[in-house]
Amino acid sequence: MITEPALKADKLVKLFPGVRALDGASLRVEPGSVHALLGENGAGKSTLIKILTGVYTPDGGSLEVSGHPVALDSPQAAARAGVGVVHQERNLVPEFSVAENIMLQRLPVKGGLLDRGSVRREAQRYLDLLELDVDPDRRVRGLSVSQLQLIEVAKALSMDSKVLLLDEPTTASTPSEVERLFGVIRKLREGGTAILFVSHKLEEVYDLCDTVTVLRDGVSVLESVPLSELHRPELITAMVGREHSALELPARPRFEPDPILELDEVGTAYGHHGVSLSLRKGEILGLYGLVGAGRTELAKSLLGLSAITEGEVRVRGRAVRIRDVRDALRRHRIGYVPEDRKGEGLFLEQPVTRNIAVAVWDRIGRRVGGVSAKRERALAEDYVERLGIRLSSSNQLVGRLSGGNQQKVSLAKWLAAETEILIIDEPTVGIDVRTKAAFHELISTLAADGLAVLLITSDLVEMVTLADRILVMRDFHVCGEVENDREYGPTSRRVMGLIHADEPVA
Ligand SMILES: Nc1ncnc2c1ncn2[C@@H]1O[C@H](COP(=O)(O)OP(=O)(O)OP(=O)(O)O)[C@@H](O)[C@H]1O
Ligand SMILES: [Mg+2]
């Protein structure tokens, strides 16, 4: 018996002003399989997913679900056809509880009223499936990006779809969270669900997926090929369009002995206790830990976004109180690239140039008495070039860029700001292979020139590639430190050993 593909897209076309986002994208996903959808930032992956879920109407091409032609002209129509989705952008209602968000599309009603007990119970089932430890009754506002992502996955699972589309669901997750999610996906596969998985992490793709489609400039350059027939270099060549070679990171001179940033037994309103660290010019200090360990919260407290309740922060040897991000930059030359760049880092309704220039506004403004549009553009263009940001024009609004390209703008903005201390939270989340390498090179070069970097990343490969030392955090305190010998295996084992040690470290 020949089975029909669970999902078939044929020669899809989607036009936006100035861009052909899709220009002949095709793929087929069989029931009971996991299909990877790959491509560089801006290749058209999310656009394709939005067509498959009725968010966008295609300008050409056709769709079939289980052998039947369908017109998915609304998200509801897609849900009825059995297509569930986790979009790349978060879609939760901040003021609703975790349980309500998970059950939003099918809230159970009893006697005309919302049946809260069963909302809780049902939601808890999906939280358990993902071993996600959050209170179903708490509001979604204030949860971390990784928790939000997993809640969206729980919500998609609750739909019991025949086809499940996951657009970069693991960008903010730690290895053990990813493993749990993959366990769930494998079970769904055994049960016959067809899964489409978008990721920039090729290790994950090889670990999980059966077949692959690669998009380049909106076209399927590889279509539904078994992954076992493709080696990594071939896959990357298909994405990039030419051979891609690993970059050499520059050798870095020894750091200056005096620390430029010190934390001495710091406690915060978030609940940190006794956190000490020191960072020298030219050094890259990694901060690793599981989601919820308090890394992002530490960065935020340092930047004045929440209170420091005990201990001392010293910058260039002087005790300081930083008021906010602007104060950090102006008085101390500290830059902060936040984890939630969409929420905190960018002005979506402003052009790319303005976004990049905004952090340097003071500097340029002071020197030339007002920001000239020409300088703004020159500065932006340099970084657009270096990080390969894909624009249809330099006036393009950031909100219209692909997810990965938005990340790049946020990075560019801070790299351009001539800071002396840079705190970066999850820098390459959602960024494609080629740009990731370019970013690693850029950061190493800046460090070699004397930039002090505090790097928060859940990507252990990235951590081992970049960091000189790795501090490990657990439950809002530092539980150990690992000197990075840049060999992935041994270093990562020591880091993970610190995280999973059962005894609390005194
Ligand atoms: N609403 C929109 N308006 C205008 N252009 C858009 C819109 N959405 C996407 N685009 C453009 O379409 C192209 C494809 O974007 P898409 O988001 O599909 O890329 P992607 O492959 O998902 O990239 P990433 O890996 O960065 O998420 C990009 O050039 C993007 O700027
Ligand atoms: Mg995308």
- How many H/I helices? 18
Specify the biggest β-sheet. 6 strands, mixed
Distance between the termini: 63 Å
How many domain modules?
Answer: 3
Shape type:
globular
Q: Radius of gyration over alpha carbons?
A: 23 Å
Distinct ligands, ions and cofactors found in the model = adenosine-5'-triphosphate, magnesium ion
CATH class of the largest domain: Alpha Beta
Unreliable residue runs: 364-369
Query: What is the assigned CATH homologous superfamily of the largest domain?
Result: P-loop containing nucleotide triphosphate hydrolases
* CATH architecture annotation name of the largest domain: 3-Layer(aba) Sandwich
Major beta sheet, strand line-up: 6-9-10-3-11-12
Q: Averaging pLDDT over every residue, what do you get?
A: 87
Helical residue percent band: 25-40%
Structural class: alpha/beta
In total, how many beta strands? 22
What does this structure look like?
- 35% of the residues lie in helices and 25% in strands.
- It is an alpha/beta fold and 506 residues long.
- Helix 4 crosses helix 5 (145-157).
- Bound molecules: adenosine-5'-triphosphate and magnesium ion.
- Magnesium ion binds next to helix 1.
Summarize the structure.
This protein is α/β, with parallel strands linked by helices and 506 residues long. Helix content is 35%, strand content 25%.
SSE layout:
Elements: E1 7-16, E2 19-29, E3 33-38, H1 45-52, E4 60-65, E5 68-69, H2 75-80, E6 83-86, H3 98-102, E7 109-110, E8 113-114, H4 116-129, H5 145-157, E9 163-167, H6 175-190, E10 194-198, H7 202-208, E11 211-216, E12 219-226, H8 232-240, E13 259-268, E14 275-280, E15 284-289, H9 295-302, E16 308-315, E17 318-319, H10 325-332, E18 334-337, H11 341-345, H12 352-357, H13 361-368, H14 373-386, H15 403-415, E19 421-425, H16 433-448, E20 452-456, H17 460-466, E21 469-474, E22 477-483, H18 488-500
Parallel strand pairs: 3-10, 3-11, 6-9, 9-10, 15-20, 15-21, 18-19, 19-20
Antiparallel strand pairs: 1-2, 1-4, 4-5, 7-8, 11-12, 13-14, 13-16, 16-17, 21-22
